[in-house]
Amino acid sequence: MWILGISAFYHDSAAALVRDGEIVAAAQEERFTRKKHDHSFPNHAAQACLETAGISVADVDYVVFYDKPILKFDRLLETYLGSVPKGIRSFLAAMPLWLKEKLWMVDTIKKELDYDGKVLFGDHHESHAASAFYPSPFDSAAILTIDGVGEWATTTCGHGRGNNLEILAETKFPHSLGMLYSAFTYYTGFRVNSGEYKVMGLAPYGRPTYVQAILDNLLDLKEDGSFKVNLDFFNYHCGLTMTNGAFDRLFGGPPRKPESPLTQREMDLARSVQDVTEEAMLRMSRHVHRLTGEQNLCLAGGVALNCVGNGRILREGPFRDLWIQPAAGDAGGALGAALAVYHRYLQNERSATPDGRDRMRASLLGPEYSNEEIERRLGAMGATMIPVPMEQIAERAADLLMQERVVGWFEGRMEFGPRALGSRSILGDARSPRMQETMNLKIKFRESFRPFAPVVLRERVSDYFELDRESPYMLLVAPVQSHRRIPMSTEQEALFGLDKLHVLRSDIPAVTHVDYSARIQTIAREDHPLYYDTIAAFEKRTGCAVIVNTSFNVRGEPIVCTPEDAYRCFMRTHIDDLVIGGFILKKEEQPAWKETQDWRNTFQLD
Questions:
Q1: Average pLDDT of the chain?
Q2: Residue 358 CB-density burial (10 A; 0-12 exposed, 13-18 middle, 19+ buried)
Q3: Which pLDDT value is given to residue 87?
Q4: Domain encompassing residue 535
Q5: Closest by CA position to 568, among listed 554, 555, 588, 582
Q6: Which H or E run contains 580?
Q7: How far apart are CA 442 and CA 554, in angstroms?
């Protein structure tokens, strides 16, 4: 039984392939088209999934779309009609794509895939819920899905047991925690649907100055986590912007212009909306715990990528354990829809794995390339490559990291989801006080305030962080252990804003944020042996079981997919070495790189 899940036309289009309930492949369209957050039909991603499985589209039993376009269209019409004449410009902007493609989704899917089989449609939040529960390690669990909006729902709480999944309650548009956070993303000068993680990273530089203003004016948050948004301050339901003049007056001025200098106001706004969001997530988790009586929680939806909030639910919430879908946003909806068809629609059994691990295959679900392919492709680009026996790669890479060289790392199957997890990563020495700034400004070409994530051997995580379990998908934030922290002087304690950035805070400064937190990835050898062995070899040399892991891309560009993508990124940045398959490439040995245009201007800054 082959089932192909599709998400498309909103943001982060993706395809996922399931065989008899087992996840075979999944990928986002952006990785192939090189358009970040590409929303177009995922032809390339679907083809990559089929090629991974060694089948054709004719072998697919069902194709399932992750939501119901007719219901979404109904929501748009009702919202626009309810806000006439304010919503007319937004209505006119949205209609062409709806009338051309979205309303005829069966025809679009069959035409794009050249498919003659059965097409099904999921519900947006049920697809999220299925993506969270079915691959999880739990026999039964409570479920929370929180995002901007699906058809009508913006938040749901549910219950999963065996192959059954039930939505127990929902909050409907225009009341949306995801839209509230995106409104502050817009107002602080970042791009909606891609800059929310910047707001989360900026928050520790600020003070919770505006928390009460948000709770008094924008969000009526109840003790059970239910809420209503005061639409007098927003435009997202009827206009082309997220906020309006009333919002500007409440917070003392117009939105920050993108790329302009950050001020203390933006930092305080980020901190305030982050605090409010965390409180809402905590209250929701307590409520769904009361509803279900479960000891485990599964999370999905874009807000589930708020790893600071996830960390607080783990530490302060009522659940024994939680599991977050690594592709928590719309991309993961493709996978959830396929799993929901297998387990709910077709009523096939589902049970947790006997080893207690999840079914995501470490989220390494994309394409991979053989050494022969890598050699041929990079040879055609003129690369100078050093072949290295695979058993020596980990030791050689650890030596490079120990020298504070920045290493591009391209090994195995590409990750599914927004995080690089050790297949398409850039690695560095977490002990280096210079590494964060070097990576941000000379390699990633991004804002200096943004933190980097640590990857740590799973069995050593508690030696470095206040975390007692694995975090394989970089979706939990936890504090650095107190004995690793460097106490601050009185002068340093008094610093505000970005002045905090240059204060050394621990013996792993490159991955310690200004509030002593870190967004942690743990690595188990059974998931990614070469990646694990490299960190283990680094620990053997240095005594440190932690290195920096950031995504292999530059700002505005998707994570690399092919060997050619990796080589271009390597040559365009200050990455020192590229470890790719059974080869190591040193920057100083490569031929001079020539650009035909200013390549950074070809990407959307976000």
A1: 94
A2: buried
A3: 65
A4: 371-602
A5: 554
A6: strand 577-580
A7: 10
Structure token pair of residue 40:
């177009």
Distance CA 238, CA 105 (A): 25
Q: In the structure encoding, which two tokens stand for residue 527, read together?
A: 């998931």
For residue 180, the surrounding DSSP H or E stretch is: helix 177-187
The Cα–Cα gap between 70 and 559 comes to: 33
Q: Which residues are paired to 586 by β-bridges?
A: 577
CATH of the domain at 418: 3.90.870.20
When pLDDT is averaged across residues 486-514 and rounded to a whole number, the result is: 89
Domain assignment present for 11: no
Q: Is position 564 within any domain?
A: yes
Which whole-number Å values give the CA distances from 221 to 183, 211, 383, 507, 581, in the listed order? 17, 12, 57, 40, 51
How do residues 407-419 score in pLDDT, each as one tens digit?
999 999 999 999 9
Q: Which residue has the tokens 């919002």?
A: 247
Please identify which residue in the block is written with the tokens 């505000």.
Answer: 496
d(CA 240, CA 11): 17
Model pTM score: 0.95
Predicted pLDDT of residue 127: 98
8-state DSSP, 191: -
How many domains does the chain fold into? Answer: 1
Distance CA 192, CA 171 (A): 21
Q: Is residue 406 part of a domain?
A: yes
The whole-angstrom separation of Cα 412 and Cα 166 is 36
Residue 70 belongs to a domain: no
Radius of gyration of the chain (CA): 23
Residue 84 pLDDT class (50, 70, 90 cuts): low
549 near 425, Cβ under 8 Å? yes
- Helix H, strand E, coil C: the string for 550-564 is EECCCCCCCCCCCHH
d(CA 399, CA 397): 5
